[in-house]
Amino acid sequence: MSPAIPPTLARPHFIGIGGAGMSGIAKILAQRGAQVAGSDAKDSPTAEALRAHGATVHIGHAAAHLDPATTAVVVSSAIREDNPELTAARAAGIPVVHRSDALAALMEDARPIAVAGTHGKTTTTSMLSVSLRTLGLDPSYAIGGDLDEPGSNAHHGAGDIFVAEADESDRSFHKYAPEVAIILNVELDHHANYASMDEIHDSFETFTRRITPGGTLILSADHEGARELRRRLADDLKVTTYGEAADAGVRVLSIVAKGLTSEVTVVLDGEELTFTVSVPGRHYALNAVAALAAGAALGVPAADLAPAIASYTGVKRRLQLKGEAAGVQVIDSYAHHPTEMTADLEAMRAAAGEDRRIVVLFQPHLFSRTQELGKEMGQSLALADASVVLDIYPAREDPVPGVTSALIIDAARAAGADVTACHDKDAAPEVLAGMAKPGDLVLTMGAGDVTDLGPKILSVLEA
Q1: 310-345: buried (b, 16+ CB within 10 Å) or exposed (e) per residue?
Q2: Domain enclosing residue 159, as ranges
Q3: Do 409 and 455 share a domain, yes or no?
Q4: What pTM does this model have?
Q5: Are both 132 and 212 inside the same structural domain?
Q6: 244 and 165 in one domain?
Q7: Residue 206 bears catalytic tag
Q8: Collapsing DSSP states into helix, strand and coil, what is residue 27?
Q9: What is the distance between the alpha carbons of residues 312 and 378, in angstroms, rounded to a whole number?
Q10: Is 271 part of the annotated catalytic residue set?
């Protein structure tokens, strides 16, 4: 694969360069030889990893950070119009490029696999990237989470395959033209951008029309939203379905939990394959099957790819073990949608058995999501033995009157859950450590900065 740099991205400036999606694109460009610069609100290991690749990373946002020689300013949908660097770029006539357009440009000379769906994108992208790398195919990849260390969310490989997440939240996945596309599931989320399931289905249908001629869509046969999408698609699109459903093209015969791993048996092209998935949970096992089907569609022998999937051992924030202290294991979960929360809690229950308690520290993510799905989040928390709920992490949103974490807490209590409100995030580690008993599993759960509290809980437990 040629390491060409699009001329517009020869000297890019990334606003919010430390973000999961932005940092990956910045890293690949730096590895290709671009003169990368950018800014972020605070310093981080990710920023330091980018500096190690030659990028200039400023802390804080200021017009002075923008080099006059900048060829493009790269932004995500989270960047507000009044950002001083964005304002300066527009005044200077510097092109402003959305993150998705930059990623699409990087994939132009490759054989792209784009992974889409409401849940599971990061895990599936990671599984596929790691297994292809294990086979020596050296793919390029852009993942929404770090595999093993800060900055390991992206790589410019010598091979011709490029694996990337395809984000539906702002419809930016319409920019990609994959040879193989995966759609794991289709649910209503991102309520600030989608008003109904019809809009969601229309958006995913538009994404499928971007698949290159002769390409393949890998689609869940189990998920009703995905099955409805299948009914809407053109007959001439090549579709391979996967799952436990009897009509699945790649049929899952069994998923057997074995502690913190699973053994999966599938039938693909008439051949029965059994392989190990090194993370717990039925949903992660099905993600692995999607990755297997996508690799096979690209011509990678399934008999080679299946055992290589076992080399994937997890991605940060996806049921990541943070440590153990005083007989308590602390695990970090990125789950922030009720479906994800339920799946992770069920996976932990299967791994822990009935003798160990599961205690959750949950941080709701976004006012809009809490307004629409707060009741369902509370019902999911009823699967835990006890929960503490923090205030809503706003991310890019402004507060919505009347929308607080009380919506979740009330629903959880109505479902019979033992749940406690905690309005002081800094006090939460003491609260959790006071609740936890030897043998418990403590989950920090959410897409915001609740992830920072796991080590603090461990420190309190140790003390």
Answers
A1: bebebbbbbbbebeebeebbbbbbbbbbbbbbbbbb
A2: 107-311
A3: yes
A4: 0.78
A5: yes
A6: yes
A7: no
A8: helix
A9: 32
A10: no
In whole angstroms, give the CA distance from residue 128 to residue 392.
Answer: 33
Cα(260)–Cα(13) distance, integer angstroms: 41
- Alpha-carbon distance 199 to 176, whole Å? 19
> Of the residues 46, 71, 122, 342, which is catalytic?
122
**One domain, residues 358 and 424:** yes
**Whole-angstrom distance, CA of residue 69 vs CA of residue 78:** 25
Mean pLDDT of the chain: 93
Chain-centroid distance, C-alpha 7: 29
How far separated are the first and last CA of the chain, in Å rounded?
A: 52
Give the CATH number for residue 446: 3.90.190.20
Q: What is the pLDDT of residues 83-106, one digit of tens each?
A: 999 999 999 999 999 999 999 999
Q: What are phi and psi of 59, to 5 degrees?
A: -105, 125
pLDDT in tens, 406-420: 999 999 999 999 999
CATH of the domain at 279: 3.40.1190.10
**What is the pLDDT at residue 3?**
62
Q: Is the pLDDT of residue 211 over 90?
A: yes
Which candidate, 280, 295, 254, 264, places its Cα nearest to that of 134? 295
Does 240 lie in the same domain as 387?
A: no
The angle subtended at Cα 450 by Cα 337 and Cα 187, nearest 5°, is 10
CA nearest 121: which of 33, 228, 204, 214? 204
Cα of 271 vs its chain's centroid, Å: 31
User: Total structural domains in the chain?
Assistant: 3
pLDDT at 318: 72
> Of the residues 85, 118, 123, 165, which is catalytic?
165
pLDDT digits (tens, 9 = 90+) for 241-287: 999 999 999 999 999 988 778 899 999 999 999 999 988 888 889 99
Judge if 171 and 227 occupy the same domain: yes
Judge if 91 and 113 occupy the same domain.
no
Catalytic residue among 70, 71, 85, 121: 121
In contact, 337 and 118? CB cutoff 8 Å: yes
Across 328-337, average pLDDT: 92
Catalytic residue list contains 322:
no
**Residue 150 DSSP symbol:** T
Same domain, 303 and 360: no
DSSP single-letter state for residue 398: P
Which tens digits make up the pLDDT trace of 416-439?
999 999 999 999 999 999 999 999
